[in-house]
Write a structure and sequence with these properties.
Layout (H helix, E strand, L loop, with lengths): L15 E7 L6 H15 L8 E9 L1 H12 L9 E9 L2 E7 L3 H14 L8 E5 L4 H10 L1
Antiparallel strand pairs: 1-2, 3-4, 4-5
Length: 145
């Protein structure tokens, strides 16, 4: 006897929040992690992997996110990203960060990925070193050093 086909779900897929990261080279990541650990030891804050956020938080279905990621990834290669300067902010997710030099390759890669995801980004690319609530204190301390 044939098994009846399972009914297909007609419920729309649930959206999740995704972002696209550029990860540092294997020889750079440990140095960034050590620096980030030192800042966390001094000022507290959550641990996270060092990265450049290429496409910020965007709500998509899992299938749409995967399709957009595959499409955006075609033809992309690793690229050099150099630090322009250290900066601080007042936003929890951007307390202490390294601004990335906006070379044509960095800007074009970011624009390419953002276009595939339909994401508008006006933020300069950065590597965040510390997330935290005490950003004002950190800014004052860094300015006095």
């Amino acid at each position: 006897m044939a098994k009846p086909a399972e009914p297909k779900s007609t419920a729309p897929a649930e959206n999740n929040v995704y972002s696209v990261w550029a990860l540092p080279q294997d020889d750079v990541a440990p140095r960034l992690k050590k620096l980030m650990q030192g800042l966390r030891d001094e000022f507290s804050g959550p641990e996270f992997e060092p990265h450049i956020t290429v496409v910020g938080a965007i709500s998509l279905t899992p299938e749409d996110a995967l399709n957009k990621f595959k499409s955006a990834s075609r033809g992309l290669k690793a690229y050099d990203a150099k630090v322009d300067r250290v900066a601080t902010g007042t936003f929890f997710y951007q307390c202490v960060f390294l601004l990335i030099n906006p070379t044509p390759q960095v800007v074009e890669t970011s624009a390419h990925c953002c276009a595939h995801f339909g994401f508008n980004s006006a933020t300069q690319l950065m590597i965040v070193l510390l997330h935290g609530m005490g950003c004002g204190f950190v800014v004052q301390l860094i300015c006095h050093i």
